[in-house]
Design goal:
Elements (H helix, E strand, L loop, with lengths): L1 H4 L15 E2 L20 E2 L13 E6 L7 H6 L1 H7 L2 E6 L3 H11 L5 E4 L2 H9 L8 H10 L2 H6 L1 E2 L2 E2 L2 E7 L2 E4 L1 H7 L7 H14 L3 E3 L11 H24 L8 H14 L32 E5 L21 E4 L8 E12 L4 H10 L2 H11 L22 H11 L3 E5 L7 H16 L4 H11 L2
Parallel strand pairs: 1-2, 3-4, 3-5, 10-11, 13-14
Antiparallel strand pairs: 5-13, 6-7, 8-13, 9-11, 9-12
Helix pairs in contact: 10-11, 15-16
Length: 456
């Protein structure tokens, strides 16, 4: 769901002050990480000559990323607009995920859409309205992204959508001060995470974990992330892929072991629910509020994605030595580094030259760095990408830097959010529903059996 992929990133965005175009020396947009305009600087239009003169052309972009999070997107297109003469008409809609399908089925499509899920991309492709990605976009994605990202933007072997922004889900939030005061250390393996949990229980100062899965009609989705993270750690990337594609049953050995491991943390009353009550309160605690008790030392740990930074109160110092920070949810051992995440994909419904030009620019490292600069906020806001050309110096806040380091680490084995790739009847239906029933008392076996039975 897009609400998990970055729609919650908040904070005041410092827009780039871009001056009028100038000409001069410079690399191509596909080959530099810093050209194309900087805050308070000018745009080197030599970098954009390959896109031609697009004066008088308008390109519509439709997305679910609304104000104020849309501002960095609008800002990131300014150099392209100033140097090519084209106008990018960015249209934001909170009902994007429903409306883009309605518009595609009615033949009323935008030029470009920012799609938050591979599953939704496949639904759009099935309408026959989506255009295959241009060759220039494919080359950029092959150069700047891990091959798995191109696969995620493909349907039945055809490449349709380049990746854009990303989020890291394999994170555990904690209080650096609480860790220092109690002599706790960031765990490096799952065994160490379990030992840390047991030590916090033994110390008796607070509950080790706090959690919340309430999210309106989407209640339950945070538990699907927990399970996906543990399937990835128990079975590895290949088994995870088989599970997501239903090549192995939802209730088979590895998924069963993974959910039971989650239960060792979340269904044990000694471990949860810090600041809220007993285990049952996990189902009724809003996911936005779930990690806040860390700030009051009512819990020590909260597993949630990088975008959760936006939910801490204004003025919270999110840093390695601050009020709150996060660490990578460890693997079984240091021989692997599984990473669960999500992201956005850029796809087109038109193959007009100006649309193809914007798509190509959007898939470069130049755009990624422009977007990172436009998104940088010294408190909670921000944006990251798995684009290998992203200069992490353009990321201001520490959680973005941490997330980018995890994403771009050559040792990382990245996998996309599983429920976002499953059929809707499962991914945002039975999986959410039965996960909620599981946390309120339903057994692992019954939970997984019911999800398996719901698979189309």
């Amino acid at each position: 769901m897009h609400r998990r992929a970055g729609a919650l990133v908040a904070g005041t965005v410092a827009a780039l002050a871009l001056a009028a175009c100038s000409t001069g020396e410079g690399g191509t947009p596909g080959g530099t990480g810093t050209s194309g305009g900087t805050a308070g600087g000018s745009v080197d239009c030599a970098d954009y000559e390959q896109y031609g003169d697009l004066s008088g052309k308008t390109i519509t972009v439709y997305a679910g990323i609304v104000a104020p999070e849309d501002t960095p997107y609008i800002t990131s297109f300014k150099p392209f607009e100033e140097c090519t003469g084209a106008k990018v008409d960015y249209q934001a809609d909170k009902q994007f995920e429903q409306q883009i399908l309605v518009r595609a089925q009615a033949g009323n499509t935008p030029d470009i859409a920012i799609v938050p899920q591979p599953g939704l991309l496949a639904q759009l492709v099935a309408t026959g309205t989506v255009k295959a990605a241009p060759e220039g976009v494919a080359k950029n994605v092959e150069e700047f992204w891990d091959p798995s990202w191109k696969e995620l933007g493909s349907v039945d072997g055809t490449f349709y959508a380049a990746p854009s922004g990303a989020s890291v889900k394999s994170l555990v939030w904690y209080s650096p001060k609480q860790f220092k005061d109690n002599g706790y250390e960031v765990p490096q393996t799952l065994d160490e995470l379990k030992s840390l949990t047991e030590k916090i229980v033994a110390d008796g100062n607070n509950k080790p974990w706090c959690a919340g899965i309430a999210s309106g009609e989407a209640t339950g989705w945070p538990l699907t992330d927990w399970m996906e993270d543990f399937v990835l750690r128990v079975g590895g990337g290949d088994v995870y892929d088989q599970w997501v594609k239903h090549e192995i049953a939802f209730n088979s050995e590895v998924p069963t072991e993974a959910l039971d491991m989650v239960g060792e943390y979340l269904k044990d009353p000694a471990n949860v629910n810090g600041g809220f009550g007993d285990v049952s309160t996990i189902a009724t605690t809003a996911f936005q509020d779930a990690g806040l008790p860390i700030l009051q030392d009512q819990c020590s740990l909260h597993r949630q994605a990088s975008f959760y930074a936006a939910n801490f109160p204004e003025g919270t110092n999110i840093a390695e030595d601050g009020d709150v920070f996060a660490f990578y949810l460890p693997a079984k051992d240091d021989s692997t580094k599984p990473v669960l995440g999500a992201g956005e994909f850029v796809t087109a419904f038109s193959d007009r030259p100006e649309v193809q030009a914007l798509l190509e620019f959007w898939s470069t490292d130049t755009w990624a760095n422009l977007k990172a600069k436009a998104s940088s906020d010294e408190t909670n806001g921000g944006w990251i990408s798995a684009n290998k050309g992203l200069d992490t110096a353009n990321l201001v806040n520490p959680i973005d830097k941490l997330s980018a380091e995890i994403l771009l680490d050559p040792a990382s084995e990245f996998r996309f959010d599983g429920s976002d790739q499953m059929p809707a009847a499962v991914g945002n239906g039975a999986f959410w529903r039965e996960a909620t029933a599981w946390i309120t008392g339903q057994s692992t076996q019954e939970t997984l059996d019911k999800i398996e039975a719901a698979w189309p």
